[in-house]
Design a protein that fits this description.
With about 250 residues, the protein is mostly helical. Helices cover about 55% and strands about 0% of the residues. It is built from 11 helices and 2 strands. Strands 1-2 form a two-stranded antiparallel sheet. Strand 1 (about 90-95) and strand 2 form a beta hairpin. Helix 1 packs across helix 11 (about 235-245). The chain is globular, with a radius of gyration of 18 Å. The relative contact order is 0.13.
């Protein structure tokens, strides 16, 4: 039974980890800019806004990209975001995020860039693997009073941070960029866990949990490592493909 499930997931992973995956996925935005610093910054913004419906959040990510003119890193580093997201402006940007929320998020990110050079440089100094990288990112933004867009700690599954790390660490992929592959081992990444992934994992008998917590995400990642020992998060594409075929 386990071998059968493993073969099935390996087949789905190969079928769905292709350039076609980018079509409606938020990962496509990081492929629309040039240069590693712009790609890293665009990826972080896109992952941070990726909750709810793609039809709702993708236009918001596109709106930010349009404002940057493709120079995402400079737009944040030089404070150009303040032309679009005003401090104390309570007008809604997206769901729970108003313009002031976005201003504070970008201000904290700007301070990180000015202090460390890039988010990658910050993580390189404060983390040694996928788990400590999640904690380092959450810890920085929590210290700067940002706990809505970035989780304040790692008790939750931190799905969007884990997604960002998948994009940054996994290389040799038509989707993931692998910009941080030289200092984070992809075998230490944690799967981006949400209710959809939980549902597919339960159907396959990979997991018996209904709650998206970091502990659950780690258990599922360990199970996927039994199928993809050198690259557990290849299983993320496999579960996506399995879900598509179930629908």
């Amino acid at each position: 039974m386990v071998m059968s499930t493993g073969r099935l997931l390996r087949q789905y992973a190969e079928k769905y980890e292709t350039a076609d995956f980018l079509k409606d996925d938020p990962s496509r935005f990081m492929h629309l800019v040039r240069g590693s610093k712009n790609q890293e910054a665009m990826a972080f913004i896109a992952s941070s806004l990726s909750y709810g419906s793609r039809k709702q959040f993708n236009p918001k990510i596109q709106m930010v990209l349009d404002q940057t003119g493709g120079e995402v890193d400079e737009w944040i580093r030089t404070g150009q975001y303040e032309d679009h997201f005003k401090k104390d402006d309570t007008g809604c940007f997206y769901r729970l995020y108003n313009n002031d929320t976005m201003h504070r998020f970008f201000h904290a990110y700007q301070q990180l860039l000015l202090t460390y050079g890039s988010l990658g440089d910050y993580v390189r100094l404060h983390a040694s693997d996928g788990g400590t990288a999640v904690a380092a990112i959450c810890g920085y933004f929590n210290h700067h009073g940002i706990s809505t867009i970035i989780p304040k700690n790692t008790q939750s599954a931190c799905k969007r941070v884990c997604l960002f790390l998948r994009w940054m660490v996994r290389g040799n992929s038509p989707v993931d960029l692998g910009l941080w592959a030289d200092f984070i081992d992809r075998r230490t990444l944690i799967i981006p866990l949400d209710t959809h992934v939980l549902r597919q994992s339960d159907r396959l008998g990979l997991l018996k949990s209904k709650t998206a917590t970091m502990a659950t995400a780690r258990r599922l990642t360990a199970t996927l490592a039994g199928i993809f020992p050198d690259d557990p998060l290849k299983g993320d594409y496999a579960l996506f493909g399995y879900g598509i075929n179930q629908e």
